[in-house]
Specification:
This protein is α+β, with helices and mostly antiparallel strands. It has two helices and nine strands, in the order E-E-E-E-E-E-E-E-E-H-H. A hairpin with a 3-residue loop joins strand 1 and strand 2. The chain starts with a strand and ends in a 5-residue tail after the last helix.
Length: 142
């Protein structure tokens, strides 16, 4: 049996995933991370985007709005404001959020400030990338 590490992915609302995995892949502020059993302890911020876990040779994909990732000797914990399985990301809502953020960035009189609009645009783009990657890995040309 392959070595494994326990992973907990939780949001402010609920636990999204808890179980033993072979590896965890996430987008940290300083770049992409690949975490395997016996990884050095680590604490880092995550960018909005996908988190992938490798279970029995198959990837499961999740979307996080950012947050923190902590690696301890036998446990990886991902704490996010929002986290969901990639399959549950609403493409229509993400496209609408992207359009709203782009309009806010162009409209100097917008109620939303520039930094907030940039953050919302980055989150919407990360959701759309998660949907696109999920479609590609689902094994077909959708």
């Amino acid at each position: 049996m392959a070595m494994s590490i326990h992973v907990d992915i939780v949001s402010a609302e609920q636990e999204i995933y808890s179980g033993s995995v072979e590896a965890v892949f996430a987008s940290a502020i300083m770049g992409e991370l690949g975490i395997y059993p016996r990884h050095t302890p680590l604490l880092t911020r995550l960018k909005p985007g996908e988190v992938r876990v490798l279970v029995n040779g198959k990837e499961e994909q999740f979307y996080v709005s950012g947050g923190m990732l902590e690696v301890q000797p036998h446990v990886v914990t991902i704490l996010a404001d929002t986290a969901m399985r990639a399959a549950d990301v609403d493409e229509a809502a993400a496209l609408e959020a992207k359009a709203d953020a782009e309009r806010a960035l162009k409209d100097t009189d917008a109620k939303m400030d520039y930094a907030e609009a940039q953050a919302k645009l980055a989150e919407a783009m990360a959701q759309l990338r998660s949907i696109e990657r999920m479609r590609k890995t689902a094994g077909g040309s959708h």
